[in-house]
Write a sequence for this structure.
C-alpha cells in the first residue's frame, strides 16, 4: 500500500468572506461587531467541449459568475475554470 | 456544450512502482549473451541476460534519429526494428557514432532485409548482436515488456506539466531543443551535461522538470487525466443534457453555483428545474442539520 493521498481527493479553491460592521464607544474603542453580507467565491476546474463567455451576460441573483478561463491546446482536451460568487445564508 | 468538473474524471493509470524503479535507475533484463565455450560445453546453461538501463534522453534522441518504428508503431514493427532499439538502449553513448554513420550513409532508406548488398556496417553488427544474444529465444512477452519499459513511465513527469499551447514547430520530439532543455539539469544536479544526456533516466529528468515548474509557480502541475475517460464523460454529459437529466455533480453539490442547470437541460425537460430545487432544498436542510449538530456537540 502506498503512502499517498487516495484517488479522487478533491482539489478546489474556495474563498469565504464576510463584511463586518463595528460599533464604537465615544472614545473610538470597538464595543461590538456584527457580520453581514457573507459570500463564497468558488472556483472549479472543468473540462469543456466549447467555450461560452457567461461573464459578459448581465447577471443578477444570488450567484454571479465572476471569472472564466478556457485553455485550448492542440495536444489535450480543452480545460478551464469557472468562478462564481454566491451570497451565502447562515447554516446555523 | 457540456462541462465536466475535473474531479469527475479519472487520472491516467500509472504504474507507480515501475516509475519509482525507473527513477532509481534500476535495469530491465532481457535475452542473454553467449557464454562462449561454456555455452558450447553446457548448452542448457542460461545465457547472461542483457541489463538495460532506464532510457536517457540520449537513447531517445538516437531512436528518433533512426526513426524507430519499434517506438512509433510497436504493433507494426519487425524484428530488425526491435534489435535496433535494443542495441541502442543497451549500448547508449557507445553506439552513437555508429548510428550517425548509418544515418548519414542513408541506412534508413537503403536497408532491405532480404538483400545483404544494401546492408551497412551497423546492420551487420546488429545481425551479429542478434545471434550473440540469442534473439530468437526472446519471447513476444519479453519484447512487449521491453517496449513498455522504454516508453510507459519515461514521460510521466513531463506529462504533469501543462501544455502551454504555443503550438511551436517541433519536427523532432527528442531533437536539439529537448536535448538542451534536459541538459539544463546538469547545473541543478551539479554533474557534467554528458551524464545528464546518457546516464540520468529520462523518467527522473521529467519529474525534476515538473518540480521546477511547480516551484516556478506554473499552475496545474499534476498527474494527467485519462483522455479516454474525458471522452467518455463528455459523451455521457452531452447525453444527459439532451435528455434533460441531472449530472452526478449537480446531485452531489446542488448548492455549488458552478454546477447550475444549463439552458440545454432546461429546454430538454423544463420539469428538471423543480427536481433540482427539491434536491437543493433537501441538501440545504441536511447541511443545516449537520451544522446544528456540530454547534451542539
Amino acid at each position: 500500500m502506498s503512502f499517498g493521498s487516495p484517488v479522487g481527493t478533491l482539489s478546489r479553491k474556495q474563498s469565504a468572506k464576510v463584511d463586518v460592521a463595528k460599533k464604537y464607544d465615544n472614545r473610538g474603542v470597538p464595543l461590538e461587531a456584527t457580520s453581514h453580507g457573507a459570500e463564497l467565491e468558488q472556483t472549479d476546474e472543468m473540462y469543456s467541449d466549447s467555450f461560452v463567455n457567461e461573464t459578459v451576460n448581465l447577471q443578477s441573483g444570488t450567484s454571479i459568475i465572476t471569472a472564466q478561463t478556457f485553455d485550448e491546446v492542440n495536444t489535450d482536451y480543452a480545460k478551464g475554470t469557472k468562478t462564481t460568487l454566491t451570497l451565502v445564508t447562515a447554516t446555523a | 456544450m457540456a462541462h465536466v468538473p475535473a474531479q469527475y474524471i479519472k487520472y491516467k493509470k500509472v504504474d507507480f512502482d515501475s516509475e519509482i524503479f525507473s527513477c532509481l535507475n534500476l535495469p530491465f533484463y532481457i535475452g542473454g549473451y553467449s557464454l562462449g565455450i561454456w555455452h558450447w560445453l553446457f548448452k542448457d546453461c542460461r545465457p547472461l541476460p542483457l541489463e538495460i538501463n532506464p532510457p536517457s534522453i540520449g537513447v531517445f534522441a538516437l531512436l528518433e534519429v533512426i526513426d524507430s518504428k519499434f517506438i512509433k508503431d510497436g504493433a507494426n514493427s519487425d524484428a530488425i526494428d526491435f534489435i535496433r532499439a535494443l542495441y541502442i538502449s543497451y549500448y547508449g553513448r557507445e553506439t552513437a557514432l555508429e548510428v550517425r554513420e548509418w544515418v548519414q550513409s542513408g541506412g534508413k532508406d537503403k536497408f532491405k532485409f532480404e538483400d545483404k548488398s544494401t546492408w551497412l556496417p551497423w546492420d551487420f553488427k546488429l545481425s551479429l548482436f542478434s545471434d550473440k544474444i540469442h534473439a530468437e529465444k526472446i519471447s513476444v512477452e519479453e519484447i512487449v515488456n521491453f517496449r513498455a519499459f522504454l516508453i510507459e513511465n519515461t514521460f510521466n513527469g513531463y506529462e504533469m506539466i501543462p501544455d502551454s499551447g504555443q503550438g511551436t514547430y517541433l519536427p523532432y520530439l527528442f531533437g536539439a531543443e529537448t536535448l538542451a532543455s534536459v541538459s539544463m539539469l546538469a547545473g541543478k544536479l551539479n554533474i557534467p551535461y554528458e551524464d545528464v544526456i546518457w546516464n540520468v533516466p529520462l523518467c527522473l529528468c521529467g519529474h525534476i522538470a515538473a518540480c521546477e515548474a511547480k516551484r516556478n509557480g506554473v499552475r496545474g502541475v499534476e498527474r494527467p487525466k485519462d483522455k479516454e475517460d474525458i471522452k467518455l464523460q463528455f459523451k455521457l454529459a452531452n447525453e444527459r443534457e439532451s435528455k434533460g437529466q441531472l449530472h452526478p455533480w449537480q446531485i452531489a453539490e446542488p448548492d455549488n453555483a458552478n454546477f447550475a442547470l444549463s439552458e440545454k437541460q432546461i429546454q430538454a425537460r423544463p420539469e428538471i428545474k423543480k427536481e433540482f430545487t427539491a434536491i437543493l432544498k433537501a441538501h440545504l436542510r441536511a447541511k443545516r442539520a449537520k451544522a446544528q449538530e456540530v454547534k451542539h456537540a
